[in-house]
Amino acid sequence: MRAIVHTRYARTDNLELRELPIPSPKPGEVLVRVHATSMHADIWHLVNGRPYFLRLMGAGLFGPGGKIPGTDLSGVVEAVGSSVTRFKQGDAIFGETTRSHQWSHGGAFADYAVAPAHKLALKPATLSFVEAAALPTSGLIACQATFDEGAVKAGDAVLVNGAAGAVGLFALQLCKDAGAVVTAVDGSAKLEALRQAGADAVLDYTVMDYTAGEDRYDLVIDIPGNHPIKRCLGVLKPWGRYVYIGHDGYGATGGRWIGSMARFLRLWLVQWLRGQRPRFPPAPDYPKRLAMLGRLAADGRLRPRVGRVLALDHVPEALRCLEQGAVEGKIVVEVAPPAQ
Ligand SMILES: NC(=O)c1ccc[n+]([C@@H]2O[C@H](COP(=O)([O-])OP(=O)(O)OC[C@H]3O[C@@H](n4cnc5c(N)ncnc54)[C@H](OP(=O)(O)O)[C@@H]3O)[C@@H](O)[C@H]2O)c1
Q1: Are residues 66 and 124 in the same domain?
Q2: Do residues 36 and 74 touch, judged by C-beta distance below 8 A?
Q3: Domain annotation covers residue 283
Q4: I want to staple 293 with a disulfide (CB 3.0 to 4.6 A). Which of 75, 83, 89, 139 is the partner?
Q5: Are residues 110 and 145 in the same domain?
Q6: Best substitution site from 50, 223, 308 to test ligand 1's pocket, by max atoms within 8 Å of Cβ?
């Protein structure tokens, strides 16, 4: 099979298209014929090896060891490992390939990939493979921020900062679907897209600072985290929730060692000093959340915004586009074009 192989931590010239044997599914795993896969920020971090602490967290201390990047996929089940009962050969599915946390390559940039069965869901027939591949990681992070940490409910006033990015656009739509009133913050060129996605109000971050306004929110979902924490907490109603996602601008704004983790640590300290007990969010209920994302997308209540579709041998170009912010919407890699 064809696969993109990561040879060393570096910005460029570290990904090669090679021929490799097709992997075999272990117990609890599914072998997928990959139709499409998508790019996200953590793939960039793993390919670059930055921030450095992720190398300790499963990426590989001295190098990536020739592994295959990619975590999100859609495709067709080729074979199932023992104890897998939810899927059978020929099922169209979508989901994630990583076994535990996100700080490791998942092997999705290939003709075939294995994925844990509990991180897959059946693909709704009305959803294309390209659309389905755009859903998993960004959609799951948005679900976690909106429902698990954010506990959004109808009538809540929500602000999403960085709302036109992959996570933000899903969070905005999920909050609207839940009946919240959403203010979306992003750059001038993206405000129309935010209105079309259902935002009740839009703010241009290049001319307005949302933390300086009079409005107060039940929930703030903050992707870039570009204001001091105290000012972000200051726009909350007394019972309001602040959910920080974290974005280091592909190495531009975060430190080399721990990236945007530094802000998490400051946030936890501030919350602890205020008598709150910060905690890591629990792992998502993958089958439930993926099925929900698929259903909402099939019903047209959640629209994955696909900005560009590239072929497998264009993964290095796709990563450069991601880093440069050259594409609005999700970059999807189509591995096997649909049969005519
Ligand atoms: N998406 C995923 O699947 C995924 C996976 C794993 C982890 N994550 C985590 O989630 C983070 C967010 O990911 P993402 O995919 O949503 O990022 P993204 O697609 O790059 O979106 C970030 C958005 O924030 C905007 N922004 C930048 N500076 C801003 C500011 N000062 N005020 C308001 N908005 C600003 C960006 O606009 P500009 O173009 O103007 O800069 C962009 O629209 C990542 O860094 C990563 O740590 C995401």
Answers
A1: yes
A2: yes
A3: no
A4: 139
A5: no
A6: 223
Range of the domain at 180: 139-273
Amino acid at 209: D
Distance 225 CA to ligand 1 centre (A): 10
Query: Among 231, 251, 273, where does a domain finish?
Result: 273
Return the structure tokens found at 143: 């679900």
Together in a domain, 20 and 117: yes
Taking residues 235-245, what's their average pLDDT?
96
The 10s digit of each residue's pLDDT in 261-298 is: 888 889 999 988 888 877 777 788 999 999 999 999 99
Residues 119-133: pLDDT tens digits? 999 999 999 999 999
**Does some domain include residue 286?**
no
Q: Write out pLDDT tens, residues 129-161.
A: 999 999 999 999 999 999 999 999 999 999 999
**Residue 111: predicted pLDDT:** 98
250 alpha carbon to ligand 1 midpoint, in Å? 9
For residue 89, tell me if it sits in a domain. yes
Could you tell me which residue, 110 or 246, shows the higher pLDDT? 110
CA of 24 to the centre of ligand 1 (A): 35
Q: Is the pTM of this model over 0.85?
A: yes
In-domain check, residue 288: no
What's the rounded Cα separation, in Å, for the pair 317 and 321? Answer: 6
Q: Are residues 8 and 129 both part of a single domain?
A: yes
- All residues at 6 or more sequence positions from 151 whose CB lies less than 8 Å from its CB, including other chains: 219, 241
In angstroms, rounded to a whole number, what is the distance separating the alpha carbons of residues 74 and 113?
10
187 lines ligand 1 (CB under 6 A): yes
Q: Is the CB of 223 under 6 A from ligand 1?
A: yes
Ligand 1 in contact with 246 (CB < 6 A)? yes
* Mean pLDDT on 40-60: 89
Count the domains in the chain.
Answer: 2
Contact between residue 36 and residue 334 where contact means Cβ atoms under 8 Å apart: yes
**Pocket flag, ligand 1, residue 167 (CB < 6 Å):** yes
Q: Give the CATH number of the domain where residue 233 resides.
A: 3.40.50.720
d(CA 264, CA 279): 11
For atom 3 of ligand 1, which residue has the closest CA? 138
